[in-house]
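Exam revision sheet. Question 4 asks you to relate a sequence to its structure. Input first:
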Amino acid sequence: MRGADLRGANFCDATLVNANLRSADLRGADLTDANLTDANLVGVKWSVGTLWPRGLVEDLLARSEPLGGGGYVVQGSGNSGADLSIPPVPVP
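Answer key, structure tokens:
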């Protein structure tokens, strides 16, 4: 899925363990209860409308640069490194 346009996609309950999402566009996507353990998120574009599993939002905000218009791009190592099987929280 590297570089894929996944805007607005529904990944609720998806198993994305070790997924290569590098440079994918996840703006407005719903990743509620998705398992992103060891997923590569470097360069992922996301927005305030993207729903991430709880526990990942704060880490992504800390590792992302704003794009403007409520969008962000993930910098750094990109690996989620967390088991994410709890309810989502909207990005503030």
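Marking note for examiners. The longest helix spans residues 57-62.
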